[in-house]
## 1
Amino acid sequence: MREWSAWNLFYTHFDPIAFTLFGFKVHWYGLCYVGALLLALFIASFLLRRFPARFSIESKSLESYFLWAEVGVILGARIGYLLIYSDGVYYLMHPWHIFNPFNAQGEFVGIAGFSYHGGVVGFLIATIVFCAFRRQPLLRYLDLATFSIPLAYVLGRIGNFLNHELFGRVIEADSAWAFLGVLVDGELRYPSQLFEAFLEGVVVFALMVVAFRFCKKNGYLSVVYGMGYALARFVCEFFREADSQMGYYGSLGLSMGQILSIVMFVGAGLLFFFLYTQKSPEISQKTQKLRRKQCKK
């Protein structure tokens, strides 16, 4: 009989509940999510201070935008999940259940089910509406946000792992990759959440750092993020178990996550084509100095 390592048995010993407060269970996932929000805001604030001429956004505007974007992400992620992965018709007819944290017996069970791609749509809508109402430069806000997301995303995926959710595909016990697996209900599975944290978070952030140096036109950072994330997610989906209610599609056996990643990649490509065909006037040194003074006020 195979002897399992401490890593293989991680879920056997780890409790996803960090602590209980006034009868409510606080999960590690929730703490990771809050940490991700704070980290994203910290990175965005740092970028504004370090590169004021590049983004030309006031700090007070960033704080307001952060709230708009977060509301958009939460609404988009939740509604997107229900429309794509669940019984969307039921929730459209009973919208008060979308964020209902109690089950039919009145027990507090929390809110489960958020779609990243749905969150992207909600984020884009919130950003567009915010910039339209406040008369702010849309592409600069998108560039700032997409540069701030990847490292924060790492915490989100670690939260998924600690919360015992979004499991990876099954690994054969005699496979050379068995040492990577984590036992879930007696089956050895890839820790796909951590693969996603690395590829979609750390690697994409490194890509954004390189792109920041060479992509000077407003909007190009958003393109790099969209394409980079889509490619990373597409690869990670080969290690992640598809949602049981969805399965795999077509002769290639693609998951819904891969299909949505293709759509995201194409969307980023269309944005690149649009930006590439637009004239980009050179920004004079005088204008850059003026921007710096405005941002420091």
Note: The two ends are 68 Å apart (CA to CA).
## 2
Amino acid sequence: FMVLVLLAAWAVWDAVGFRRSRLWLPIAFGVLAVFAFLTWAAADGLVPVTGLLFGALSLSVPLIFGALGGVIGERVGVVNVAIEGQFLFGAFSAALVASLTSSPFLGLIAAMVGGVLVAFVLAAFSIKYLVDQVIVGVVLNVLVTGLTGFLYGALLVPNEDLLNRPER
């Protein structure tokens, strides 16, 4: 706590003296503040910090992969707003195929195929018909959200014992 107070005082001293603060100062303050908060939260044992960090890491990895795919697409000039639709259709097709075949590996392949199908629709409308990529991406997100919701209600809910139990 005292280190944070000293770093804050140093930043205030730089600001009062009209000096630019060094870049490492806010970075060190942020890292130390997060570490101090996690230490304080775990001190009484009420917050399971290791489980919290594991859950945050495991839930953020797919989003980070999607964001990296979007960055790579941006570097080559593709504005892919339909990444969420690709995730959703891939997850739905994976759950459907994995529960039909009882094979998580075929479900993984179906997830890739589902994401590629959404990407093909984005590419067809953007390249062949010259529709704005952002508009097509938003429309695809809405389309895939509605389509998976409809297919879930029409296929998975009535056949819960057969189709809604994928292998883990």
Note: The chain has two domains: 2-43, 78-163.
## 3
Amino acid sequence: HDDAMVFIQVMRHFCSFVFGSHLAGENPDLQKLISLSSPIYRLELAMVGRLFAQAPALYADIIFDNKDSVAMLTEFSLKFNQALALVENSDKEKFIQQFTKVSSWFGDYAKQSLIDSKQFLLKADDGRTLIENC
């Protein structure tokens, strides 16, 4: 269970925490970001915002209490920095190669995710929240 939760909860919540912390530190106009975002990105912003509307101790427990958190987040940090180096070096070819490799790993699930995410957006959208600002 903990082995799976480090991927399902720890990484997702930690990434949302860091993204939210970065947004707060940079202080962009949040309403402008929301209004300029497509529905899928507004949903992503909503997921990050949702995290910060909840009890911080809950997320601290999830992240800090998993025995694999530090190792997994350290490995993730290495992958992030490797990807950043591709951008810093303007190595689009290697980025595309890596993208293709990851796409291959996801296999049919990637294609199904594209279909499913469209359905999620339709279900999540009540005609006001996700489309009104487009």
Note: The domain at 2-124 is CATH 1.10.3660.10 (6-phosphogluconate dehydrogenase C-terminal fold).
